[in-house]
Design goal:
Distance between the termini: 27 Å
Strand order of the largest sheet: 1-2
Shape: globular
Radius of gyration: 13 Å
Order of helices and strands: HEEH
Number of helices: 2
Amino acid sequence: TDFTEFLLPVLIDKDGKAARYYGLRGISETYIVDKKGIIRKKVIGPYVWDSPDALAFISGLLKE
């Protein structure tokens, strides 16, 4: 079985500063932010993060 694992930092936004900065709406949202702070992908609602497309996308970002 081909298995890919990513160890990525996760932001816990206790004071809501990041939510205000990125304009979050209170719905379940996921943002992939690059090293420069630019949003590269925004997903509202659930998403299959271990799909081949998602893994290829994240792998590509990590190579940048």
